[in-house]
Amino acid sequence: MFLNPGEAPELVKEEHTYNAVYCEACKVTHLFRCRIERGFSDSANAACPKCAADLGEIRCDLGSPEYLGSRKGNHSSSSQGIIPTGFKRMR
């Protein structure tokens, strides 16, 4: 079976981007995953899960950024599209 462009099931179209964002107050880099939908361009504010500081806007087309974990130090220069390692979920 072949599908024409635009007829692919939603699961096939779903993409994610990973954003490593540094919190100056906590000296910690937080990792967020966002859902990306082709044809959309939206953003959401990321907040530090520890101190609630505003970490700025990141691209997140549908929903809000999903917090995945944290790592001490500034690791925000990680390449987008590559899942950074060494992040642990804060309690």
Give a quick rundown of the structure.
4% of the residues lie in helices and 40% in strands. It contains 1 helix and 5 strands. It is globular, with a radius of gyration of 15 Å.
Could you give the topology of this structure?
Layout: H1 10-13, E1 15-23, E2 28-36, E3 43-47, E4 54-59, E5 66-72
Antiparallel strand pairs: 1-2, 2-5, 3-4
Q: Explain this structure to me?
A:
The chain has one helix at 10-13; strands at 15-23, 28-36, 43-47, 54-59, 66-72. It has 91 residues and is mainly beta. Strands 1-2-5 form a three-stranded antiparallel β-sheet, with no helix packed on it. Strands 3-4 form a two-stranded antiparallel sheet. β1 (15-23) and β2 form a beta hairpin. The protein is globular, with a radius of gyration of 15 Å. The model has no long low-confidence stretch (mean pLDDT 77).
What tags apply to this protein structure?
5 strands, mainly beta, single chain, globular, three-stranded antiparallel sheet
Q: What does the average pLDDT come to?
A: 77
Q: Give the oligomer, counting copies of the same chain as homo and different chains as hetero.
A: single chain
Number of DSSP-assigned strands = 5
Largest sheet: 3 strands, antiparallel
Strands in their spatial order, largest beta sheet:
1-2-5
Poorly predicted runs are none
> Helical region count?
1
Beta-strand content bin:
35-45%
